[in-house]
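1st attempt posting a full record on here, be nice pls
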Amino acid sequence: MTTGSHEGEVGMSSQRVSGTAVQRTIAVLGSAVFFVVAPCTLAGLVPWSITGWQLRPPFLGLELTRGIGAIMILAGVPGLVDAFARFALQGLGTPAPIAPTRNLVVTGLYRYVRNPIYVAVVAIILGQAVLMGDWRLIVYGALLWLAFHVFVVAYEEPTLERTFGTEYEAFRAAVPRWIPRMTPWRSK
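the predicted structure (as tokens):
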């Protein structure tokens, strides 16, 4: 009788593992689609349509500014990819509101800032502005950040609070919305 009971538990455990694997696969695919639709459009297609990726004279007449822009882009891209991967692999969902995570993601860059995806997208856009010497991208980046801010405050934060309760409240109290912490936050 004990063996039968144990086998049933193993079978249920296998179902949970395979169910999680299926959820993770769906989350990865959904996140990949959303990655192309949202950040690639906002930080790639729109800046290209504004600038044609044509270099203008560097800001302040200093070629050095182009290097700063490149660093901003190079810092933003891996952060963006990492945050998307964490949504799929740890959160078992996507950054898209229509397919949210099942788990609150509080690792990686989320230990420093609550919105690393938005921060990375804006950094990539502003990096392109500095690299190409194009003020129009600075305006676009500022307007996009404002839209992100309104969305985060009006929709995202209240939704996360309802969904994750005290876990999110502790995270929100310890981790800044936009300006990263100097040291990583560790959930208790």
